[in-house]
Structures are given as structure tokens and as C-alpha cells.
Amino acid sequence: MTSVGIQMAGTGENAIRELLLSRLSSAYRLATCILRDPQAAEDAVQEAALRAWTSRHELRDPSKVDAWFGRIVVNVCRAELARSARRRLEVAAEPAVERWAEPGDAWAQRDETSRALARLTPEEQVVVALRFGRDMTVPQIAAHTGLREGTVKSRLHSAQEHLRAAFQAEWRTDSAGEVQR
Predict the structure, then answer these.
(1) Do 86 and 156 belong together in one domain?
(2) 27: which residues sit within 8 A by CB, 6+ positions away?
């Protein structure tokens, strides 16, 4: 038995439970950043905690619990983003509620940003949320997602190009086709 195996064998279920419980608030912040919905983030963290508990035997090194649990949270969020994208495609679009927005209106800017982020693929949304929402470095994102650093860089670049195009389209015309910016 390796030293890591001996270390985990000595780590009882109570210790693993404590490791997971101590990371729930951080996991919630991560999920909220990725999903941009506090309620969905709560559901995702509950799902991730359940998955982590049922696969606790896979945690070989307790010192790597952050990356291990973070990867589980990211995977649950990625699946939720994909489900949300499918639902948006299946559900007929509701008529837009028109708001009178002043130039520089923070709500209008937040709405534009949300719409632009929603146009990204789930994989792009995850890396953007981790990079800009959680201020993680490329190596940290790679550890949390299980991706190679080059893949993280590529997805960040692609996401930035897609966001730029989405913002340019948003600025050219609003949903009614009336506003030119």
C-alpha cells in the first residue's frame, strides 16, 4: 500500500465529510459564478456534494480535495448549462419585455452581458466564469476542469471572440431593431 493509500485508509468517512463540508461555500460561489443563478447554484452544489460523497473512494490524496471537488462542481455546472441550452431551444421564445434604458444603465449592461454569455457554449461559459468570475489562472482552471492548459487557453480565446461578436451584434441593434449604438 502506498503512503497515499495508507493516508486515505487512515482518513475515515468523518474526515472526508468534514473536508467536503468545509468546501461547500467555496463550491457555491464557484457554481454561482458559472451558472449566474443562485438557485441553480444551490442545486448544483447539492448534486456535486452527493456525487463527491458517493465517489469518495476515488479521492486518493486528501490534499487535492479542492481540485477533485472543484472538478465535480464544474462538471455538474457544465451539465446544467447544457440542459439549459437545450431547454432554451425547445421552449418558444417569450416576447421581450421592453425596458426604457438610459445610456450607461447598469441593468441594461448586465442584461447585455447575460445575453452575450448565454450565447457561449457550456464549455466556454465554464472557463470564462472561472477566469473572470473567480479570477483563476489557466493552471488553476485546468486543475478544476481536468482540461489541459492549452485547451483552457484555446477555449478562453474562442469565448472572447464569441463575446466580442455578441456584443457587437447587440450594439448594432436591440431586439426591436430600433437602437443603433
Answers:
(1) no
(2) 45, 48, 49, 69, 70, 73
One-letter amino acid at 10 equals G
Cβ atoms within 10 Å of 133's Cβ, excluding its own = 16
Q: What's the CA dihedral at 124, 130, 133, 138 to 10 degrees?
A: -100
Residues 27 and 48 sit within 8 Å (Cβ to Cβ): yes
6-65 pLDDT tens trace = 344 445 788 888 888 999 999 999 999 899 899 999 999 999 999 999 999 888 888 888
The single-letter DSSP state of residue 14 is H
| Of the candidates 46, 119, 57, the residue with the CA atom closest to the CA atom of residue 84 | 119
- Please state, in angstroms and rounded to a whole number, the distance separating the CA atoms of residues 152 and 148: 6
Q: If DSSP codes are grouped into helix, strand and coil, which group holds residue 2?
A: coil
pLDDT band at 134 (very low <50, low <70, confident <90, very high): confident
Residue range 173-180: average pLDDT? 50
Q: Single out the residue in 42, 74, 93 at which a domain terminates.
A: 93
Residues 75 and 125 placed together within one structural domain of the fold: no
Name the domain boundary from 93, 114, 138: 93
CA–CA gap between residue 8 and residue 13 (Å, rounded): 10
- At residue 146, the 3 state secondary structure works out as coil
Domain CATH for 39: 1.10.1740.10
